[in-house]
Write a structure and sequence with these properties.
Radius of gyration of chain A: 18 Å
CATH superfamily of chain A: Aldolase class I
Largest interface: A-B, 38 and 38 residues
Strand order of the largest sheet of chain A: 1-2-3-4-5-6-7-8
Structural class of chain A: alpha/beta
Number of helices of chain A: 12
Oligomer: homodimer
Number of strands of chain A: 8
CATH class of chain A: Alpha Beta
Chain lengths: 303, 303
Amino acid sequence: MQNNLIIHDVGLRDGLQSIDRVIETTKKIEWLDQLIIAGVRVIQVGSFVNPKVLPQMADTDEIFSIINQRKDLPKDLVLTALILNEKGMERAIQAKVGKILMGVSASETHSYKNTKMTTAEATNRIITIAKECVAAGREVQVSIQSAFGCGFEGRIPLERVLKIAEKYLNNGLRNISLADTAGHANPKRVEELFTKLKKMDDNSELACHFHNTYGMGLINIQSAINCGVKYVETSFAGLGGCPFTKVAAGNVATEDFVHYLRREDYDTNINLDLMIDLAKDVEQYLGYKLPGYVYKTGKINWN
Amino acid sequence: MQNNLIIHDVGLRDGLQSIDRVIETTKKIEWLDQLIIAGVRVIQVGSFVNPKVLPQMADTDEIFSIINQRKDLPKDLVLTALILNEKGMERAIQAKVGKILMGVSASETHSYKNTKMTTAEATNRIITIAKECVAAGREVQVSIQSAFGCGFEGRIPLERVLKIAEKYLNNGLRNISLADTAGHANPKRVEELFTKLKKMDDNSELACHFHNTYGMGLINIQSAINCGVKYVETSFAGLGGCPFTKVAAGNVATEDFVHYLRREDYDTNINLDLMIDLAKDVEQYLGYKLPGYVYKTGKINWN
């Protein structure tokens, strides 16, 4: 297995935005600190979106403001946040976000529902925003959502995804994430898409984001890693999806992924015990069982 | 993907033996019928063990007696059952079981706890029993339990597993299953072990049996398939493990595996909709959520 794999924990954003409850800022910072202490080095803190639409993320500016005053943060720590538009961009630059994330959907239906724009229009807009972020000295990751399929449209043609990626690359945006918003990905498709993407620019830094809707999260991640994907997006405790509907579809749990990698003789420099403690803490706080496996069963004891 | 893959559903045995409740015989037969109608062609019906120890399996003779009177069963249907000893063997032969399953543990501690015998003693005994079953005209599958690790002993040396396999092969027993009793397997280890096993006898018919304790069930199955494993043991609805303890560790759900294979463009000839209906029926009957994914979320709609 390649030795430059980086785990990007998205639980504080993708996880917490999807539960029907606003978590207090002090608690979020406590969990963020636990992630940092456990050794996670790329952490998605929140998103700069309309607080009326997504009250769960309303304190993202405040969290950055508090964290940025800290003098004791690890030098290699990268805190990330998602933006959707120009307003979010301004807030993210103001908040001194380490890496700003943004994207478009490869599904026309999904794109229109989210932005009232076609995929082509949304891509041009996001590229403009991304370049402004770069000009402001920020790192940027651009994503392609619904890259592997869409709840509305079903299969998404490969070419449509690659066309967006090409535009990103032509504009110097090399950190590209393929996101499986609906959880439709399967290993063959993952391999096909990332292989073609890697061939377009060998210097790109690719990321993958899978939802575990159908139990294929881990096998899809492994397929992406096989293609040279560098960033793997997972969420502590497997947070995400909605526990109160029939579709519970968080990302693969970070601690499960760390545990898996250790079984495969790959050391992530992340403290698995602390990640398990964190997941237990989250379960206790939320009051219901979360999708993660290892925090419930305990890790395998090596000998 | 190889096109001779066979799903062996073990839910009626491995699944139902691990829940703390005896399911009525008529209900078991109803589920068995649903499996058959859905197109599953190798089905584990139960085990011939001491009914005082495992009352959940006390009706295995009765189920075979009822089913064997049927004239309308598919010709290619193979009903299997597990035995532990000579007494079980007699009952299984009497019951006209299609394929009789038996095994030993590669973990000395596990072997001794189960049989009061060393692994070597247990292997000799199982080989004697297996040969008697063959002499009685029955198909046989011999297994090696705890092949990938043991809750008591941790890592199990590869050589110990291969030594048992060698004895099986030397005695003409070529249908061999490696069982991950504790759920400790990981893809690298699976590949290592099955590759070596396949090299020992290219005519062997290999089977894999993984528990999803740590979320690695599917990726382990794929690793085994890559090595030419023919039989994959899964359980409908992901039945297995104990829902009332912290360790819930059934096999991968059959319907999830069928769904995965279809995404990978592999047709199992199993009707996914009927498998999903079955899993829903099991959830409703038992009154709690089961580990399967697809029966909760619905399958991906192809287009």
